[in-house]
């Protein structure tokens, strides 16, 4: 195997990792059969795949072709990233990050009512919980669980609300379910820590 094969191998690895990321973060959309939504969220990775596939066409070329190729794909990647996430979702997550929980809840409610996906109801539950509307937050999180019993984030969010309202045994039960379900890796440590803390008390 010569050095010429290295870019091909790296390209294949990049494409494989990119598509694993798409499905890893969007298993709930697969379970819901939300193929249009999944396709939309796959746009940046489709652009990366196209870029990787076209790389051999510009390798070794001199002049302006590689520059135009790089600029063109840079623009395509930026546009695909922008289009891949609905504007309402971007506004809602920005409001949540800024601590505007009532605004975030209002935006997530519109998303959940327009497209009843477990993720929208779970995020609505998180925003309501952060805003101090615990009972509404529990209802929204429970709705997410009903829509997708494998969506671990819904159990995790509900467990935090239950813990904060003193319902320890139910919180423990939900944390265990979250860890058995499809829970993003970054939440697993937090769920394990919360579970240990509750089991000690």
What does this 3D model show about the protein?
With 201 residues, the chain is mainly α. The chain has 2 domains: 5-84, no CATH class; 87-200, Serine Threonine Protein Phosphatase 5, Tetratricopeptide repeat (Alpha Horseshoe). The chain contains 12 helices and no strands. The protein has helices at residues 5-25, 27-32, 35-41, 43-58, 65-84, 87-97, 101-114, 118-130, 134-147, 152-164, 168-180, 185-200. The longest helix is centred in the first third of the chain and has 21 residues, at 5-25. It is elongated, with a radius of gyration of 21 Å. It starts with a helix and ends with a helix. 28% of the residues are buried. The mean pLDDT is 88.
In terms of topology, how is this protein built?
Blueprint (H helix, E strand, L loop, with lengths): L4 H21 L1 H6 L2 H7 L1 H16 L6 H20 L2 H11 L3 H14 L3 H13 L3 H14 L4 H13 L3 H13 L4 H16 L1
Name its key features.
201 residues, mainly alpha, Serine Threonine Protein Phosphatase 5, Tetratricopeptide repeat, 12 helices, 82% helix
């Amino acid at each position: 195997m010569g050095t010429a094969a290295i870019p091909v191998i790296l390209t294949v690895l990049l494409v494989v990792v990119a598509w694993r990321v798409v499905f890893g973060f969007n298993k709930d959309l697969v379970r819901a059969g939300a193929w249009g939504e999944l396709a939309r969220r796959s746009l940046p990775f489709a652009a990366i795949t196209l870029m990787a596939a076209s790389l051999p066409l510009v390798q070794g070329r001199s002049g302006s072709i590689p520059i135009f190729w790089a600029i063109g794909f840079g623009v395509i990647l930026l546009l695909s990233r922008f289009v891949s996430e609905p504007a309402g979702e971007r506004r809602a997550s920005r409001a949540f990050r800024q601590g505007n929980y009532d605004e975030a809840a209002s935006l997530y409610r519109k998303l959940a009512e327009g497209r009843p996906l477990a993720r929208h109801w779970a995020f609505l539950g998180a925003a309501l919980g952060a805003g101090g509307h615990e009972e509404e937050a529990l209802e929204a999180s429970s709705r997410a669980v009903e829509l997708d019993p494998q969506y671990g984030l819904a159990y995790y969010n509900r467990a935090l609300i239950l813990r904060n309202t003193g319902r320890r045994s139910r919180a423990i039960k939900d944390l265990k379910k979250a860890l058995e379900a499809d829970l993003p890796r970054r939440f697993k440590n937090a769920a394990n820590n919360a579970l240990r803390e509750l089991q000690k008390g």
